[in-house]
């Protein structure tokens, strides 16, 4: 049985279901002597948690994290780090009507087809609530990356046809967190909030795009041919609930260019390292980071659970209709931002550790 562990050197295993007793994560491979506290992890969990604004689900979960192992006197020990978050506002009774039917565009049918059993209370492991463990682990990876001088920052760049104007090189955490949409373009943020409120009132939902930039990533990360950095990032973010597409750098827009306009040119930089001038590759060339900002965009579908009636079938194959009850996000985008950041942090942390064993001879790095 697999599918709940991610990473090679920085290995993360999540556990727990949407309406179970708790969710959690075990991290194996985190280096020793990194400063880490529950407050460090809580900061990211607070950005992911439900009930933080009118624009998201009103499930009332504080998502308070407890660190059970791997940390002593504020420093990581180099041993497995175990963390849990209790489910305190689970209401499985809200799903009683869904025991014998399959919700449209959910994992209900596919999970049952795979295992012959499913947790019908909120979708079990398929619920976005599972990402509690990922975000907690991502907060630890973020601390490790910060020690290496790297920063990962995401924001909502589009909801439906509303597209924000944001410069990935200049955007700040303060600007992202200034509005509950997590869109740092004030004009677009206001329109996005109105759009989300409108679909909520209509019993519907809406999707959009999260953009994420990673700054200060050293060149050389990535393991060709099958573990290319862009391939690993794609695998990571596409494992998130509701994620349906990814672009890195110019993405699909690059198909409209020629090689002359698309190629990234270099200029001399400090310490003998070249500087990328245009960065249409999104900071990755040949599956290896080149030192420029890594820029990716993740498309998220509209939330599958809506209050409008939709056709489906029962487990016995009989036709029926469903208008979902309960507390659900009319748009996953604001809460998806820390989820995307977490997965990017996990990939970069893992490859940072893998790179440390690539060149063992002192001074073997080109232009060291």
Describe the structure.
It is a single chain. With 368 residues, the chain is of the alpha+beta class. It has one domain: Chorismate synthase, AroC fold (4-Layer Sandwich). The chain has helices at 38-48, 108-115, 131-147, 173-177, 186-201, 229-238, 259-262, 333-355; strands at residues 5-6, 11-15, 22-28, 65-69, 71-72, 75-76, 81-86, 151-159, 162-163, 208-215, 243-248, 266-267, 275-276, 284-285, 288-289, 294-300, 310-313, 319-322. Strand 1 (5-6) and strand 2 form a beta hairpin.
Short description:
The protein contains eight helices and 18 strands.
Features:
368 residues; alpha+beta; Chorismate synthase, AroC fold; 5-stranded antiparallel sheet; 18 strands; globular
Question: What is the overall silhouette?
Answer: globular
Question: Can you count the beta strands?
Answer: 18
Share of β-strand residues? 15-25%
State the share of residues found in helices, binned by percent.
25-40%
**Rg calculated over all Cα atoms:** 21 Å
């Amino acid at each position: 049985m697999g599918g709940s562990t991610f990473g090679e050197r920085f290995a993360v295993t999540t556990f727990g279901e949407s309406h179970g007793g708790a969710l959690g994560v075990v991290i194996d491979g985190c280096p020793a002597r990194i400063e880490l506290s529950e407050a460090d992890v809580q900061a990211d969990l607070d950005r992911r948690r439900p009930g933080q604004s009118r624009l998201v689900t009103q499930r009332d979960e504080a998502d308070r994290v407890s660190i059970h192992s791997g940390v002593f006197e504020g420093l990581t020990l180099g041993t497995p780090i175990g963390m849990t978050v209790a489910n305190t506002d689970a209401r499985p009774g809200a799903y009683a009507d869904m025991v014998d039917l399959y919700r449209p565009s959910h994992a209900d049918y596919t999970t049952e087809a795979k295992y012959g059993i499913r947790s019908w209370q909120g979708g079990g492991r398929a619920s976005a609530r599972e990402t509690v463990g990922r975000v907690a682990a991502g907060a630890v990876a973020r601390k490790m990356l910060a020690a290496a001088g790297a920063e990962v920052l995401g924001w909502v760049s589009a909801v439906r046809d509303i597209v924000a104007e944001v410069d990935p090189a200049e955007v700040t955490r303060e600007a992202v967190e200034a509005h509950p949409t997590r869109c740092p373009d004030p004009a677009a943020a206001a329109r996005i909030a109105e759009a989300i409120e409108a679909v909520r009132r209509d019993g519907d939902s809406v999707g959009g795009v999260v953009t994420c930039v990673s700054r200060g990533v050293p060149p050389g990360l990535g393991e060709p041919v099958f573990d290319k950095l862009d391939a690993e990032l794609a695998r990571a973010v596409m494992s998130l609930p509701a994620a349906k597409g990814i672009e890195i750098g110019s993405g699909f827009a690059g198909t409209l260019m020629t090689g002359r306009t698309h190629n990234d040119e270099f200029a001399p930089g400090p310490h003998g390292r070249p500087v990328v001038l245009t960065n249409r590759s999104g900071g990755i060339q040949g599956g290896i980071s080149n030192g420029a900002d890594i820029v990716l965009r993740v498309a998220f579908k509209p939330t599958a659970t809506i209050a409008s009636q939709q056709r489906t079938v029962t487990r016995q194959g009989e036709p029926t209709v469903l208008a979902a009850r309960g507390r659900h996000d009319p748009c996953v985008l604001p809460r998806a931002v820390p989820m995307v950041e977490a997965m990017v942090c996990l990939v970069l942390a893992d490859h940072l550790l893998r790179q440390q064993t690539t060149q063992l001879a002192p001074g073997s790095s080109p232009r060291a």
